[in-house]
Amino acid sequence: MKSTLRAGLSGGLLALAVCAALHAPPSLAAREAQAILKETCQGCHTPQADGALSRISQQRKTPEGWLMSIARMQVMHSLQISDDDRRALVKYLADTQGLAPSETDGVRYALERRLNTVEKFDEQTSQMCGRCHSGARVALQRRPAQEWERLVNFHLGQWPSLEYQALARDRDWFDLARKDMVPLLAKRYPLDNPAWKKWLDSAPKAQALAGDWSFSGHAPGKGELAGIMSVTADAGDSFKVSVKGQYADGSPFNGEGSAILYSGYEWRGNVNIDGVSMRQVFAAQGSALQGRMFEAEHDERGLDFVAAKQGSSRLLAAQPGYLKAGTETEVTLIGSGLTGKPSFGDGVQVLEVIEQSPERIKVKLKAAANARPGLRNITVGALKGPTLSVYSKIAAVKVVPEFSVARIGEGGGSTPKVQGRFDAEAWGKGADGKPYRIGVFPAQWKVEAFDDRARDDEDVKFAGTMQADAGVFMPGDAGPNPARKMSTNNAGNLKVIAAVDDAGKSLSGEGHLIVTVQRWNNPPIP
């Protein structure tokens, strides 16, 4: 049974490739997406009732998911399509067969390129799907049971050795995939979900996002930043974007670019910031934007981003978000519609309002010497927002991310290095003895061998260097290294150590860094 199915799959894939080559025109000018679907895709995807196309109409995906599907048709099946037409198709399919905001909740880390996220799926999903790609890739698409089964068949047809790889050869992978995983996935990620239909009916028009946005951000290795992002509506659901801001240390964060909105809320932007090309992956809902910005060529170099549209009322952030008992400091509140008197809770006194505008309030604060350690709710008039951490001493330091991967690169090759970037989080103990997060603190950084094997292999010497004052790890060059045993490459297994000073007392935290080989395959969804 399996052998017959595998042979049929191989023949079917070959026929599909030939079909694409015969029926896809060499190039098409950008035009209505439905016409593109008919002329470019209908040669292989057969028409169905109500204008549907086989396979295509039985799926819902993110913009990145649809882009990957079309790219796979190009790479594997010789589809010929122009860049403009591909963009038009991704836009149309994401708008009409996308995911509702609630359906991407919890797995947006994959879209935002948070590649050091440790996923938490059930064991069966992790072993059957997550050993080759992220579980998020599965969770960011919707299909009926028949389409999930076809996806299983596609995997086995495209990668016949799949059953003989780790976590597959020790079980009847194909039967488990068909009999156990297909029903599970169809129930967990169904094509028909009232949330998507409800979102289509209620999604705001893209033009509602035009205007000025007050934003706050944090970049590991660099610190906090804030500013204004101006958005001007362009043709269709696209925008022109201008960013003007600065980091807490005074360095600029300015630039311009463009953006487009998919599915009524999926904001994707390309912005040149101070000469560096950066991408924006945000979720836009109402008067709020939230997500991540990262360098186009180095997605590990990025920042968390949250913004509120001017004209709305929202308190976004306090920079810095902590204050030591018995001391004074300046704190800046970032938001929109900030009117009224700021308050920081018991034991915290506002000594002076240094400056105040609807987007920014800078105050001088003092915490009483006997101020109770813990979190205080910050309010501005009727607005409630983030918390202020009041502490008397630091109880512990955590390295964030706790587990990270960096990658060797360059060394005469074209594959770039992937850095490791870390923050040192200080934690305190409240009056109830429970731990609470104080905030990100300056630290002194270093790496050590993670275990005896790493020590024997001198991984600290070869794997790369840690920037002592910023928590940025630069891995070594790619390629064989004659100075290492057996001329192996510069991979390594390292312990990341952050030391934070608290009134003359040094506290340290540890993380784990794997320095591994180049990232050869880097799809939009990992």
Largest sheet: 8 strands, antiparallel, barrel
Cα-atom radius of gyration: 26 Å
**Number of continuous helical runs:** 13
Average of the residue pLDDT scores: 92
Strands of the widest sheet, in order across it, are 3-4-5-6-7-8-9-10
Q: What oligomerization state is this entry in? A: single chain
Structural class: alpha+beta
Helix share bin? 10-25%
Beta-strand percentage?
Answer: 35-45%
Molecular shape: globular
Characterise the protein shown here:
It contains 13 helices and 28 strands. The protein is an alpha+beta fold and 526 residues long. The chain folds into 4 domains: 193 residues, no CATH class; 104 residues, Lipocalin (Beta Barrel), CATH 2.40.128.120; 78 residues, Sandwich (Immunoglobulin-like), CATH 2.60.40; 121 residues, Immunoglobulin-like. Strands 3-4-5-6-7-8-9-10 form an 8-stranded antiparallel barrel. Strands 11-13-16-15 form a 4-stranded antiparallel β-sheet, with no helix packed on it. Strands 12-18-17-14 form a 4-stranded mixed β-sheet, with no helix packed on it. α2 crosses α4. The longest helix has 22 residues. It starts with a helix and ends in a 10-residue tail after the last strand.
Q: What's the structural blueprint in terms of helices and strands?
A:
Blueprint: H1 2-23, H2 33-41, E1 60-61, H3 63-77, H4 83-96, H5 101-104, H6 108-111, H7 123-128, H8 135-139, E2 141-142, H9 145-158, H10 173-188, H11 194-202, E3 211-219, E4 223-233, E5 238-247, E6 252-262, E7 266-273, E8 276-285, E9 288-295, E10 302-309, E11 314-319, E12 322-324, E13 328-336, E14 342-343, E15 348-357, E16 360-367, E17 374-380, E18 383-391, E19 396-400, E20 403-407, E21 420-421, E22 423-429, E23 435-441, E24 444-449, H12 452-456, H13 459-462, E25 464-467, E26 472-475, E27 492-502, E28 505-516
Parallel strand pairs: 12-18, 20-28
Antiparallel strand pairs: 1-2, 3-4, 3-10, 4-5, 5-6, 6-7, 7-8, 8-9, 9-10, 11-13, 13-16, 14-17, 15-16, 17-18, 19-22, 21-26, 22-23, 24-27, 25-26, 27-28
Helix pairs in contact: 1-9, 2-4, 3-4, 9-10
